[in-house]
Amino acid sequence: MLNNQLSQLKDLLKIHYGYSEFWRGQEQAIKNILEQKNTVVVMPTGGGKSLIFQLPSLILDGVTIVISPLIALMKDQVDSMEKIGIPATFINSSLSPVETQSRITAIRDGHYKLVYIAPERFYSGEFLNLLNAIKVSLFAIDEAHCISEWGHDFRPSYMKLREVIKLVGNPTVLAVTATATPEVREDIIKQLDLQNPEVIVTGFNRPNLKFGVIRAGESQKYSSILDFTWQIKGSGIIYAGTRQKVEDISNYLTSNGINAIGYHAGMENEERKYVQNEFMKGNHQVIVATNAFGLGINKPDIRFVIHFDMPGTIEAYYQEAGRAGRDGKESYCIIFYSPADRYLREFFISGDNPPPKVIAQVYEALLSYEDDTALVTYAELAENITENVPDMAIGTALKILEKEGYVERSHEKTGLAHLRFLHEIEHTKQQLSAKAKVQNQIFDGFIKHFGEKLLNGVEFSPDDIAQISGVKREAITRLIKKLADENLIEYRPPFRGTEIKILQRVKPLDLKIDFKALKEKHQRELNKLDQMESYIYDHGCRRKYILDYFSDDSSHECGTCDNCVSGLKTPEDNLSCHSRESGNDMVDDEFKIETKLTQLQTYELYQQGLTIDEMAQIRDLKPATIIQHLCFLIERGQDVDINKFVKPQVQNSIKKAAKKLGTEKLTPIKEELDDKISWDDIKLTLAILTKR
Ligand SMILES: Nc1ncnc2c1ncn2[C@@H]1O[C@H](COP(=O)(O)OP(=O)(O)OP(=O)(O)O)[C@@H](O)[C@H]1O
Ligand SMILES: [Mg+2]
Ligand SMILES: [Zn+2]
């Protein structure tokens, strides 16, 4: 029976996916599922975990439920299942109640084999009732480490799963993850209450990834990543610690001719989706993102993952780095580290772990509201806090109070904005340029909606005006900012706060919260940060360090990471024109190892006295690339005489402009100068200025 089913699945593997073999661990895991054994699978990123639950769903009699935190990817996942002929659907908060209900009916009627569900859905009792109606054969949990507080990406909604599994009649459970230490694996089993599970660990190794660390001060980081993206052709992800940095870096790269796009959680959903698609389709070489991007992203040809700031844990790092090289080809995973990175991480950790005093003070502030329902902003609560903690800590304190049943938070409430015109409408309108089509459109939208009332002041919802004028909400924000800056209007943004219900009133000192556990959690996060930092400073093999961290004992020296290579001394070193005295300067090492050769070939031609075009022709490269190589060499102290390429008086004007405008961005300098001065002139001259 089992053998029959397995060979049937091998046929289906061919038919639906076009694959002829199972990858390591897949067959064993699928066999377990067919035998109804609960199974935990730990396989590397890109190891093919999804197939383990997708494929057997075809022959199981009931449906396979897949729990996944990847709401943004669900639709795509379902579409790609449909494409290969596996009937699938999804349920998450993006659906209306009616749509949810109708999907459940369709599932019950057997139209789907595979159902992706976001765990947040289980907070609704109504939804849980609907689930009763369907027969579940397999309950698959993707990114299963999210259930463990010991892991790196804990999601409270995963805690509900144990209860849901019972509710749907104890089907076979499959939990899969790429980043679980032995401790986290055990915790997954405990939290899900799995009886006699089999744990399949195929290891963590990603042989084609080359790891490295480059030490660079904050401002050096910019030019270093620019170099890097120039060298390594192909698509890449740059992770940055904050939204602001995402924007700065992507602007910087764009103004230096790299096709980059930014992604972070502060962007509207639609925009995020757009950016993600653009990157997936290959329309942009580089995506600069916070860690909101990445989990589950399966773009095969990502050639590098750069961390602009040190990540908080090895797990998070390895998961993010794991986006690289999923096609098996050589790819780079580089961290740009400056000692200041640790502060950013500590800041995040302290926001995640408010001390008992802060929790009590937040609660006390809520008690001062007479109503049991308070509409407050974090800023208001922050006024009552005597400790110096990041704003994030207030949100965390509320979460803790909620978890212990003292308060309940409803969703964010967005109120109305206030707007009053300070001058006659016609006068204000005249301040807009007639060419600014969108601005005029919005303005007319306001007039149409409110007319003369604008002079007395109106309350409005930016979303409504966006709809009336047919523009994006951000365009409205921009116009309002412009008008306010010019003192033409008075404006107050909408109230953005949270509605909080007080469920229990006790004395703040009597709060029953497990402070000891909270303290342990705090300590654990700091320990993980230490381990991350040790990775940076470690002199041994990077890959081995990571595999050891996950207790993967297959580890040995990889021979390809920066530390391994600098220990080995490759033939490239002999070609190197500058000395190795800076042996512990990882910046130089890194470029020497991986990317030196091509620039040095150009350097040899340069030394023969050739022009840029001649060099380009011989090397079969674009002249712009030759310029890049020369800049690279100059910045690293090679002797390149740019007087041959750029007239001294042109250099002087560029230097003057750079003095005024800084050397970070090229575009403003270009704009400042005579049109005849080329980008190449500017790049070469700046290289001289930023020479180490
Ligand atoms: N047996 C196989 N033969 C060929 N390709 C496969 C096989 N199994 C999976 N793949 C392909 O490998 C790629 C990665 O698979 P998948 O997305 O399931 O990785 P994953 O293990 O979930 O990784 P992550 O932890 O990063 O989410 C997919 O494109 C998938 O189709
Ligand atoms: Mg996956
Ligand atoms: Zn190594």
TrEMBL record:
CDD domains noted in UniProt: DEXHc_RecQ, SF2_C_RecQ
Domain Helicase C-terminal: 224-367
GO cellular component: bacterial nucleoid; cytoplasm; replisome
Domain (Helicase ATP-binding) ranges: 30-198
GO MF assignments: 3'-5' DNA helicase activity; ATP binding; DNA binding; four-way junction helicase activity; hydrolase activity; metal ion binding
Record's keyword terms, sorted: ATP-binding, DNA-binding, Helicase, Hydrolase, Isomerase, Metal-binding, Nucleotide-binding
All residue ranges annotated as the HTH crp-type domain in the record: 432-506
One Pfam family linked to the record: HTH_40
A single BP term in Gene Ontology: DNA recombination
Reactions the enzyme catalyzes: Couples ATP hydrolysis with the unwinding of duplex DNA by translocating in the 3'-5' direction
InterPro entries registered for this protein in UniProt: DEAD/DEAH_box_helicase_dom, DNA_helicase_ATP-dep_RecQ, Helicase_ATP-bd, Helicase_C-like, Helicase_HTH, HTH_CRP, P-loop_NTPase, RecQ_Zn-bd
Top-level taxonomic group: Bacteria
Its EC number(s): 5.6.2.4
Family recorded in the similarity comment: Belongs to the helicase family. RecQ subfamily.
NCBIfam families: recQ_fam
Name listed for the protein in its UniProt record: ATP-dependent DNA helicase RecQ
Biological source species: Candidatus Falkowbacteria bacterium CG10_big_fil_rev_8_21_14_0_10_43_10
